[in-house]
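does this look right to u?? flavin-adenine dinucleotide version
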Amino acid sequence: MADSTGFLKYDRALPPRRPVDIRLLDWKDVYLTRETGEDAVFPVTAIRQQAARCMDCGIPFCHHGCPLGNLIPEWNDLARRDDWTEAVERLHATNNFPEFTGKLCPAPCEGSCVLNLQESPVTIKQIEWEIIDQAFQRDLVTPVPPQEHTGKKVAVVGSGPAGLAAAQQLTRAGHDVTVYERADRVGGLLRYGIPEFKMEKAVLDRRLDQMRAEGTRFVTGVEVGGGAEGDLSVEQLRADNDAVVLSGGATVGRDLPAPGRELAGIHLAMEYLPFGNRQALGELDDPPINARGKHVVIIGGGDTGADCLGTAHRQGAASVTQLEIMPAPPDQRDPLSNPWPTYPMIMRVSSAHEEGGERLYSVNTERFIDDGNGTVRALLLHEVERVDGRFQKIEGSERELPADLVFLAMGFTGAQREGLLEGLGVEIDGRGNVARDGEFMSTVPGVFVAGDMGRGQSLIVWAIAEGRAAAGAVDTWLTGASLLPRPVTPTAVALR
Ligand SMILES: Cc1cc2nc3c(=O)[nH]c(=O)nc-3n(C[C@H](O)[C@H](O)[C@H](O)COP(=O)(O)OP(=O)(O)OC[C@H]3O[C@@H](n4cnc5c(N)ncnc54)[C@H](O)[C@@H]3O)c2cc1C
Ligand code: SF4
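got this back:
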């Protein structure tokens, strides 16, 4: 039973971020953690008050916002009552990795929360983080090894959140699971895309320890279908395994074919961010792409762009400007086109935006300008307006924007075809993703697809949901029946 007056007694409140001038000196989490003083500033009693704001709604709309079907009112009430053992059990019932979503999810559940009708939703994401962090602190997260082994072998290709979720579910169901990752470490975008200041890698590593103890095997530095020595051929992959899960992500970055694109100093975001992550971990002092002292321009106004922004500021950029072709979103949702309980499309200030830089909206890059030595010196921009749904240049609005370094953060066009996918001969759909049926199976029998590789560029919460659902389909295919949950179908979409 919820506290029936909690939402009247307590206002929505979140833990503070560390002061900007302090956090820019390091790469640590922008929020206070237990090590940096969270307990003193936002004690667990404050989180329990936030949990008490949940009304345990008759129709909990928060459920509809979350593809995992998280049991939000149940664990809100358990957190309120200080029962972390039961709370984490309920949390894990629907989500293998609540610490990833508790740190990184844009929280569509909060957009759908009934209290968001008054723009003060329950702080669901923060409560989720608190439950799982309390559980790790109290040694409540222990390995859950399988009780029986099926003798079936499954390969998971790609170790992002989709692959990890599929692997954990299938290992626990008793299959012999090996995860192949071409990078030198496990984690996909959680490892080398998302910066340390958004989620410290230690958070990922403690979960991987649990997975290893349960029996999941990880093989890193091996590209399946790659041509380098030590890589694994697709023929060997098929021969060695009874089923395969493809979870290689949507790794092909969208490029900008504007004149001057070939100049030095212009990079895709994912050419830059992995170096920043290695610098954050002390593995590189002077990364090959370094914003120190430079005028940086980021093309693309989304989260990937914000990650470039925060990384460039920590490297000591002279200035950072983020460009977006769309107009600035409104401060409040439009009740007609974007009503509750859909996700509010409003202006957001991420931690990186709080740290500085300028955001320009309704602008387009006409060309990149050479410094005379083959390196970018500036961008030629113009303003745009929308006419009949198409962007049109506003004549006379051209101007130069100085740029020593440009990052293209305009999204991803789909999965890499060469190597793995061409070798397997799977069909690609019209959107550049691996085609699959209602059971997450590609056009090649026994080869399943989960996460961004099948859905296209999406979110961690969707990757975990797809990994869980695909595991249920694989288990059924291998054994004829499965008790594993399937929270989403391949064609499920966010609440619209
Ligand atoms: C910079 C950035 C920041 C983001 N921030 C957020 C955020 O804050 N919140 C959020 O919800 N979402 C965020 N996203 C989106 C989110 O990270 C992705 O939707 C999610 O990681 C997709 O998971 P996945 O498992 O499908 O693939 P990925 O995480 O992309 O993992 C795929 C892995 O497969 C490996 N691989 C590919 N091919 C092969 C092969 N042939 N052999 C071996 N390994 C292979 C790749 O090396 C990679 O490690 C962000 C995305 C980016 C790019
Ligand atoms: S919609 Fe909000 S208030 Fe209602 S049950 Fe969900 S979290 Fe609680």
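The chain has three domains: 6-137, 153-251+413-479, 255-410. idk if thats expected tbh
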